[in-house]
Design a protein that fits this description.
This protein is of the alpha+beta class. It has ten helices and eight strands. The longest helix has about 40 residues. The N and C termini lie far apart (about 110 Å). The N terminus and C terminus are likely disordered.
Amino acid sequence: MSSSTHGDAGPGGGEVDAAAVALLVRGIHDGLADTRRRAGWIAEAFERYASIGTRAPEPCAAVRVLDGFDEIDAAIASASAACATEMLTVQPDGIRSPSILAQASTRDPALVARGARMRTLYTHVARYGPALNAYLERLGDGAEVRTLDEVTDRMMVFDRTVAFLPANPERTSALELRQPALVGHLVTVFECLWNRAVPLAEPVPAATGIAGITHRERVIAALLAEGHQDAAVAQRLGISVRTCRHHIGRLAEALGSSSRAQLGVRIARAGLGGPAHPVAPR
């Protein structure tokens, strides 16, 4: 090979080759660094998502799960002690037991004494519990009660900032809610029910305009028309299944029905499948 073959690059050719190699190495180095960064991000994300379900969730101020009656009672007592303006409550279980009202009697009078207002919704059945009147006498004018044919599940709202709801059917767990939109929605639901409810000092509607059918039996007819079974109807009205079936028997007799299937048809024909509690302006 002749010497002219090595001189094609001309003067300074070795310097040009060195610069090109330096640029190439720099590009490789930057590419590797970028790959390492991406690999680090992927590894971090994988570790984060892989640990979901294996580590305890971080505490959230907006929604807190309360486990056990002691923790639930302590949280409610704390919210009650801090309540300054209003407590809203829904109690769905019919007649309130004296023991439960006795427990409330140790907590609620202090709330009313501070000038806070109490409003509570019960089912109509709660009116027949003697312990309720004694409890309300202790609270005086600071507490107001209204009743409905049926209400929502249990709910407590303090100062429209914190609410408590059951988290399971046994009510051994509860949710403490402080998220403003959630609490605001619950307050709206309460106010809608409150506007439809009957004040405790007023009588519950008794007649329906249909011979032999009481107001409660019309409510039961509407729930049956929605497809609810006897146990579900009884639970929603706060009565026993036995009492519910007694009313269903009276309803069937009044409508001349000899079977449950026929009863559904007769309920529809009599126009009893709609709401049994019209809204009354107050």
